[in-house]
Amino acid sequence: MHKEITIQAPATVANLVCGFDVLGMALERPFDIMQVRLLDRREVIITSRDGFPLPSDPALNTAGAPLIAMLEELDRPEGRPPGFENRPIGFEVIIDKHIKPGSGIGSSAASAAGAVVAANHLLGNIFSREDLVRFAMFGEKVASGVKHADNIAPCIYGGITLIRSIFPLDIVSIPAPSLQVTVVHPQIEVRTADARQILRKEVLLKDAIRQWGNIAGLVAGFMKNDHDLIGRSLEDVIIEPVRSMLIPGFDEVKQQCKEAGALGGGISGSGPSIFMLSKDEATAKDVT
Ligand code: HSE
User: Which of 48, 95, 133, 260 is 20 to 30 Å from 4 at the Cα level?
Assistant: First the structure.
């Protein structure tokens, strides 16, 4: 039985423009490096290798809250893995953060997902990937006030994921062509909680129709390797018009990236990062 593991938790792009809260994609890099140790007392300790200030209460930490949810499930008599029946369990997590918090590429999700994937490994992989998403969503609740899985699911499953539902969880991996992703990161911070707060609570039917046409088109485009369909479907008529106001230069950056050959793109998660998809590396370099 292993007592310690070091893992890489990748950055992710949530929403993929039209799929607010339901689509997400894992990136190859950047990634956080997390060292997780099994403790023989019921405690969760989170520390940052680079001295990044973290809340001292693990319940208020994006990696800590998911581990507490996991421990609570282990407290049930049937929740104990073999070999741990009568032993207290705890975890110490040391995070080496490379995904800047507040940048819009799934920093909180990487901490949450990485912690539970590593902890599960130390327990003999007793939990399913869906269980891990369920625990990790407690980290998103700490970060943004709301549970959502469009960063966590791709961080755990890899590739592109559709979150058809979170209550109950229904996660579908979407096969897709290899795509190059360019991320432009303006040097400002946008808190997800704030970027959610400004959204309208009601949507016009004509906008909803256009949006679900785009979501279906995007998923079909990924599955059919149809780059033109992917490009046409990367349109958001509901969220982007509101949130783009928080990102100076958004329209110009998007326009110039498309002129350079990108298939399309938009706000990464809740921003401020902007992401663009390209079908090959040469085009992605032009976009950069
Ligand atoms: N779907 C979430 C949002 C992702 O856009 O608020 C946050 O990273």
Answer: 133
